[in-house]
Amino acid sequence: MPAIFTDRIARTYMRIMLRAAVIGLLVLQTACDDEPPISMDPVTDISYEVETGGSVDPIAADGALKGGTFTIWGGPNPKSLNVWVDNWHLSGEVMGLLYESLVTLHSVDNKPVGQLASRWEEAPDGVTFTFHIHPDANWSDGQPVTAEDVQFFYDTIMNKDHLTTVYRTVIGRFERPEVIDAKTVRITAKERYWKAFWDAGGFTAFPKHVWEGKDFNRINFDFPVVSGPYELLEYRRNRYVLLKRRADWWGRVLRYNQHKYNFDYIRYRFQEDRTAALETFKKGDYDMYAIYTASIWAQQTDAGALESVARNHVLRQEIFNQEPIGFQGLAINMRQERFQDVRVRQALFYLLDREKLNEQFMFDQYFLLNSYFPDLYPGNKNPAAEMYRYNPEKAGQLLDAAGWQVGDDGWRRKDGQVFSITFITYASDIRHMNKYVEWLKDAGIQA
Question: 289: which residues sit within 8 A by CB, 6+ positions away?
Answer without folding.
Answer: 15, 16, 72, 73, 277, 278, 281
